[in-house]
């Protein structure tokens, strides 16, 4: 069936938009879909104002749609032909172009849905707390930044131990030989979403290698996927430690 909607990904460097680019590359390889990519660079760590011309909040990822027929582009969310929020974009890509690529069995459906939500509302949210604290410290003048960093170091270590490690342990325990993916028996949307938080935690040193063996193996396997590797090459940076600053 001819592709009637051509997506364009508005991709911000060093951001959650990466997993949407990765998904598009997997769809391109598996199903031959066509898509366009527009890269945007951060300015002093922030998204450029040009993104507000695409979506009023100026946040990335943004996916816009172009119709190849005389039919108008559909309104999937609020604005015609415009989608935001990485988790929802991934769901749309799966429904519109996936042809079952990331669909899981009925036995794994609830698991897949759970880990999609857990990845965003628990894993990424907890990781973001630390990122914000560390980012605020770096914005201070050098001398003050050093002092505040030293003072807050015990608090940051405590947060890692008490808040993040139980999450990593929970994720590690969820993987086994029968269900090696967070989506279950096969790779799916939950794995895309969990990977964002784990990428962030890994790059920033919150997740120590070797402490959670099954989680480490899953992460290594995910990063070796051809779509992930291709997205790294096509994107404009994926440094979650400095965000290109």
Task: Annotate the secondary structure layout.
Blueprint: E1 5-12, H1 18-31, E2 36-40, E3 62-67, E4 82-84, H2 86-97, H3 109-139, H4 142-173, H5 189-203, H6 213-223, H7 226-234
Parallel strand pairs: 1-2
Antiparallel strand pairs: 1-3, 3-4
Helix pairs in contact: 1-2, 1-5, 1-7, 3-4, 3-5, 4-6
Distance between the termini: 44 Å
CATH class of the largest domain: Mainly Alpha
> Helix and strand string, N-terminal first?
EHEEEHHHHHH
- The appropriate CATH architecture of the largest domain is Up-down Bundle
Alpha carbon gyration radius:
19 Å
Helix content: 40-55%
Strand order of the largest sheet: 2-1-3-4
Structural class: alpha+beta
* Global morphology: globular
The parts where pLDDT drops under 50 for at least 5 residues are: none
Q: Can you describe what's shown?
A:
With 245 residues, the protein is α+β, with helices and mostly antiparallel strands. It has two domains: 5-98, Glutaredoxin (3-Layer(aba) Sandwich), CATH 3.40.30.10; 108-225, Up-down Bundle (Glutathione S-transferase Yfyf (Class Pi), Chain A, domain 2). Helix content is 51%, strand content 9%. It has helices spanning 18-31, 86-97, 109-139, 142-173, 189-203, 213-223, 226-234; strands at 5-12, 36-40, 62-67, 82-84. A four-stranded mixed sheet has the order 2-1-3-4. The protein is globular, with a radius of gyration of 19 Å. The mean pLDDT is 92.
């Amino acid at each position: 069936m001819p592709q009637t909607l051509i997506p364009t990904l508005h991709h911000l460097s060093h951001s959650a938009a990466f997993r949407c680019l990765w998904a598009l590359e997997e769809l391109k390889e598996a199903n031959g879909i066509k898509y366009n990519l527009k890269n945007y660079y951060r300015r002093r760590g922030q998204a450029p104002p040009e993104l507000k011309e695409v979506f009023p909040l100026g946040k990335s990822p943004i996916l816009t749609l172009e119709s190849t027929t005389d039919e108008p582009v559909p309104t999937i969310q609020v604005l015609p032909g415009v989608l935001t929020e990485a988790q929802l974009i991934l769901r749309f890509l799966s429904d519109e172009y996936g042809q079952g690529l990331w669909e899981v069995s009925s036995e794994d459906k609830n698991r897949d849905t759970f880990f999609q939500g857990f990845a965003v509302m628990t894993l990424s949210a907890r990781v973001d707390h630390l990122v914000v604290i560390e980012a605020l410290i770096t914005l201070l003048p050098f001398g003050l930044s050093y002092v505040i960093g030293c003072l807050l170091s015990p608090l940051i270590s405590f947060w890692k131990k008490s808040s993040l490690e139980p999450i990593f342990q929970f994720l590690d325990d969820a993987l086994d030989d029968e269900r090696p993916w967070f989506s279950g028996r096969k790779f799916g949307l939950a794995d895309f979403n969990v990977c964002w938080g784990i990428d962030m935690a890994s790059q920033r040193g919150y997740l120590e290698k070797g402490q959670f063996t099954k989680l480490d193996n899953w992460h290594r396997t995910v990063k070796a996927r051809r779509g992930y590797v291709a997205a790294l090459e096509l994107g404009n940076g994926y440094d979650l430690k400095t965000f290109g600053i």
